[in-house]
UniProtKB/TrEMBL annotation:
Name the record gives this protein: VOC family protein
Transmembrane segments: none
Matches recorded under Gene3D superfamilies: 2,3-Dihydroxybiphenyl 1,2-Dioxygenase, domain 1
Record InterPro entries: Glyas_Bleomycin-R_OHBP_Dase (IPR029068), Glyas_Fos-R_dOase_dom (IPR004360), VOC_core (IPR037523)
Protein's organism: Alteromonas gilva
Record-annotated VOC domain positions: 128-240
């Protein structure tokens, strides 16, 4: 199971695409069906779909898997009773599978038989998405659900978040103990720490400073730099997230504490708590389809 992409709807999608391409450093894969598809250097046909619409919302977050995984997933989703329907993707890369709405509204899509593309040789492009994080009213309940229904695994718990993996990457998603549900942020995996830092420089060329970072996280050990994109969402340059074994010992909040005045391993950055909190409420999920039997 791999995290592949996020599909967003928003006004002025062309301006959001312009930011991701000409400032952030990603690449236009295609423009079709009122949608800009933005890719990185890796084999996924796109990482972010930006569809023109009247209001801002997330249509889905897409994971790709093989047919066997999809069959097992379908059975568990059906047994859960959560709203779901079969899905034939019209996005780049095609594929078939299901989309399910979790109890706090998160819309997760699982596709098999998707196509991939040739890699691009450009060390400044993001490679892929490394995680998409959600705000949750009840992060523990949501994490329990994704373990039971989606077969994801909790990697670590902190005071603020529950980190969840769907393969050997420490986390592909996380649920923030926010008290409300929405999109928290989208993290792009850069080739290495230098590529993150060159990204920070590129943003600086456009008079943009990080909302948090650069720094190195505790859980996952990844390097980060967060920005508030002009289209409202929080986006992150990240790299070097930890790979974990199947029997990784789940950390508890008391295992992940910081010395006073520190919120990352390096201790070199400030965090715009107020700005991030507003940005993290810009996009929530909206289900625009009716549930249907999965078989
Ligand atoms: Fe992150």
């Amino acid at each position: 199971m791999k995290l592949r992409s996020i599909e967003m709807v928003l006004p002025a999608a062309d301006q959001a695409a312009d930011f991701l391409i000409n400032v952030w450093g990603a690449k236009l894969a295609a423009q079709q069906n009122n949608t800009h598809y933005i890719r990185g250097s890796g084999t996924f046909p796109y990482l972010v779909a930006l569809e023109e619409g009247d209001s801002k919302y997330v249509r889905s977050v897409t994971f790709v898997c093989d047919k066997q995984e999809l069959i097992a997933l379908k059975a568990r989703v059906e047994a859960s009773g959560f709203p779901a329907r079969p899905e034939v993707s019209n996005d780049l890369g095609g594929g078939e599978g299901i989309i399910v709405e979790l109890p706090e509204g998160e819309l997760l899509r699982f596709l098999a038989d998707t196509t991939e593309v040739d890699t691009l040789d450009d060390e400044d492009l993001p490679v892929k998405l490394t995680h998409v994080v959600f705000n949750a009213t009840d992060a523990e309940r949501t994490a329990d659900i994704v373990e039971q229904v989606l077969n994801f695994r909790v990697s670590d718990r902190t005071k603020g978040m529950v980190f969840v993996r769907c393969n050997d990457s420490h986390h592909s998603t996380a649920f923030a103990r926010a008290g409300f549900s929405s999109l928290n942020h989208i993290a792009f995996e850069m080739q290495d720490t230098d590529a993150v830092m060159r990204g920070v420089g590129r943003l600086r060329d456009h008079d943009r400073t990080p909302a948090w970072g650069p720094g190195r996280h505790g859980p996952g050990d990844n390097v980060f730099a967060y920005y508030i994109a002009p289209f409202g969402a929080v986006v992150e340059f990240s790299t070097a997230v930890e790979k974990v074994p199947e029997d990784y010992k789940v950390g508890a909040p008391e295992d992940w504490t910081w010395p006073e005045n520190r919120i990352d391993q390096w201790g070199i950055s400030d965090k715009d708590f107020a700005g991030l909190k507003v940005a993290e409420q810009t996009f929530s999920f909206r289900r625009t389809w009716q549930p249907e039997p999965l078989n």
